[in-house]
């Protein structure tokens, strides 16, 4: 063992030395001048403060976490998962339905014929509790896991559904119930109270759970919904902590009602938000199971602590601009949820962030893409044929443990405040989620977090979408606290669209490229991309000399220009071009790149556009100025 350790240490030293040499070369310094070792310089920090190292080796190997279906359930809740089926492909129906109950039933059966194997049914907004019998005609309720989302109508919908289950036709071939076939009444009053979703009271939910325990029906009452926190901006550690804290609140309610801990645990399932951070999503499902197993252990029922999970692609990561990119985001999220051991997965449509009446693609197309995203992973990539395929990965196991430990620390802090309800009433939860949202928004604004099609590689020529007066909460599964990642940039694009419709042109900024295309192309491309993310059209006339500046200013309706070139070109031609731009009437002249590259700091441009700036603040200021100076000298709009 000592020889193996020595060998690993030596291999790591060689890697570290080689990596340091590469870093030093890229920074044009000596190795001993680097501000740290290679590992620290190449490490990254997640939104919730976890450190991701650049290299994981056998030295990071952790103890075997047990088999799937065994405590601590890190590797999965189900020891009997059918590897020919994998997780359940759960499709959502019922949101704002204008179709008849018979038509909804036809759409559901068509989804099952084409690969769906689970049903998530919204009741109360287009689908009434009295419609359930007709809507679920032909659905084998003992084989298909049904999850309700009935909001304030949950009591009536639950009772109607339970009666339907009692009298429903059994499937021709019986199958043993598993974690993946576990249905839920979808009750989550504690998390819904935070997010503002319609809900019943916790007391009513506890009463329904007690009825289920009494009747012995194989269905669970609670679906503790972590998406209520995720879509409001909570980072992964905070999501897990709040979800487990809310679940513990319901567990205490159930035991206080006289239900044994083992039976109370059997009334809970979890909804987990899956986003396009692949490894974080994998670890999140595994960490949740580890945390919940610990809770079950503390209440004396460790073998009943298998957390059944329903993964749902994160609505807040979806963009309204260039929504086709959402297909890639949801594919990564579905992969992460499946590999992480989700028992059911729902992929929201690529246009789910757009209110239904404003979508340009047919509902059937969106549903088919979402469903086939999972079917490709299951049936062609065979992801579901291995239980816990990431198990044993030094990185994934380390990340799981780190995430679980971080979330557990927050969870114990909540317990120290008196539990979930006390933390919610004191405003602690709102403050913590708000702080996490602010940190995420800051990373997006500085473009440290890239949102393709929004703050990176935007398509300014994209056909504008109409705006919904009700805002993001009008979209299906949205809540009053929904805060989409790209919303600030999309707000600027909305202003641009409004101006385009009003005056026939978007706000424009004149780019003033210096030197050859090879010299300025990198920075003109950067500036054009940056401006477009705020809805500003960067006008690029090609290489410009000081003598040509006035003509381009006269022909471009703007009061702002950006000089683009190399440091050498700034030294040679910059001052003359700057003087010409100001003489031609540009109120603001900016520099592409750091101002330190400008040769005359006493007569420098008015600011700079460079990597790392607060793009939202900068672009908002530019748009405000362009709106205020519309019609002034040089503006022909």
UniProtKB/TrEMBL annotation:
GO cellular component, one term: cytoplasm
GO terms, molecular function: cobalamin binding; metal ion binding; methylmalonyl-CoA mutase activity
rRNA-binding listed as a keyword: no
Keyword Lipoprotein assigned: no
Superkingdom of this protein's organism: Bacteria
UniProt cofactor(s): adenosylcob(III)alamin
BP GO annotations: propionate metabolic process, methylmalonyl pathway
Keywords: Cobalamin, Cobalt, Isomerase
Gene3D superfamilies listed in its UniProt record: Cobalamin-binding domain, Methylmalonyl-CoA mutase
Domain Methylmalonyl-CoA mutase alpha/beta chain catalytic span(s) in chain numbering: 130-468
Oligomeric and partner information: Heterodimer of an alpha and a beta chain.
Family statement drawn from the similarity comment of this UniProt entry: Belongs to the methylmalonyl-CoA mutase family.
Protein name: Methylmalonyl-CoA mutase small subunit
Gene name of the record: mutA
